[in-house]
Amino acid sequence: MSPSTLALAAVLVPAAPLALHPANPRILLFRGEPTVLVGSGEHYGAVLNADFDYRTYLETLAADGLNLTRTFVGSYVEKPGDFGIRLNTLAPAPGRFLAPWARSGSPGYAGGGNRFDLERWDAAYFARLRDFVGEAGRRGIVVEVVMFSAYYRDGWSLSPLNARNNVNGVGEVEKGRAQILDNGPLLGHQERMVRKVVEELAGFDNVYFEVQNEPWADHPVEAGLVSPYLRPGELPGDAVRWRNQVHLASKASLDWQARIVSAIADEERRLGSRHLIAQNYCNFRHPLRDVDPRVSVVNFHYAWPEAAAWNLGLGRALASDETGFAGSADETYREQAWGFLLAGGSIFSHLDYSFAVGKEDGTAANSAPGGGSPALRRQLGVLKAFLGRFDLPALRPRPDVVARAPGAVAHVLAEVGRAYAVYLVGDGDTALALELPAGRYREEWVDTKTGATIAGGDFEHRGGPWERRNPRYERDVALRIVALP
Q1: Which of 121, 69, 62 is closest to 352 using CA atoms?
Q2: Could you tell me where the DSSP H helices lie in 289-350?
Q3: pLDDT tens across 302-347, in order?
Q4: Which of 65, 230, 259, 444 would bridge with 480, disulfide CB 3.0–4.6 Å?
Q5: How far is CA 134 from CA 117, 121, 143, 206, 289, in A?
Q6: How far is Cα 5 from Cα 240, in angstroms, rounded to an integer?
Q7: Cβ atoms within 10 Å, residue 332
Q8: Global pTM exceeds 0.70
Q9: Measuring CA to CA, which residue among 386, 291, 392, 377 is closest to residue 345?
Q10: CATH number for domain 18-393, candidates 3.30.530.20, 3.60.15.10, 3.20.20.80, 3.40.190.10
């Protein structure tokens, strides 16, 4: 083929969608390259909020070296002030909420404007959704498309699927029954929406679908206490207890989620496409069982490293899918990202409250239950670039490589004898000892804040524990070791 013919073929034949790497399903394969996904994204309203300039937003993510964003499709929306978020992209101004369904000629939507007609699609909404995903793809950014969410607080009262907000009389149920199988004709409209979204995005390679955001919030099943990220006093009373408690979704919720998974998978088969499906299982950490075989991405919120380490045997991509409720300091979320990915995770999706309408460049000073800043995004870009220098499918979590790390917690990904990615978070003065086979190596100590090499060199090792007093660091540091010929 001539160069011009090859270029035309590249346009006409879409790339294979994001997939699990065949040699290591913990790692993702995107456009022929193994990768991890690292994002620091707005509060999920980029498409449904008509005032949000998503091109500037996506350009900001790409400039910071990030490759992931997360968006809600519009079955759930918030009102200004929810969760103490002053500048909330998921809470559009009155009349500026876009949803998959067209507006009717009848007033009365609880969020302002006319009610929705669930029998008609909104062509402008789907044009915006496709353009958003396309603009992301042109910048090498993957989009997690979230079909549904738990209906917190007054969330059900604002949903187009609530009978009060549509002209079809569909959704005449209490909030707790909206997302279970026994919800009357609502289920059919939920499935129809899912199939429509899948159809509209079938040709894009940079998409994966999540079933539901935080399903355990609809019908929580307690699964045991864990130590929280936040400290006593950061949230009052019951909120602290809830945030300290791992929750799993009820059986009724899981049955409904399985039905939505079926709708996604069936529509994909009909269209001849195959995108990954994600399911959100719990907060913090929990050893999971009985994961739906059609689910390829296992999502945790506020995830500890153990959420990855305890679930490596699932043979899926493991995601820290949302952050927050741990203050606003950059170092908190930087440490969460490094710890989770070097414990075996492959996706880190930070919820970044510095994005807002009019501040799509991520420079907003926002009041919110989390963090986000230009500095943090650059630091997360350092993490992605650091891991990108390794043969990712060859790496495995190897905590046994750490012989000693006094004053620090160490996480290690390694291809033993060939390459080691090490992350230390501690007191800044660690005499690290690693078990290395005999050989010649190069060490490179990396500042996690700037990406700069702060120390390094070549060394010969005779085998056994290799000890090195690291350069002094503040809070955390990374180490790259590679074998030399």
Answers
A1: 69
A2: 305-309, 330-342
A3: 999 999 999 999 999 999 999 999 999 999 999 999 999 999 999 9
A4: 444
A5: 27, 20, 10, 8, 36
A6: 61
A7: 19
A8: yes
A9: 392
A10: 3.20.20.80
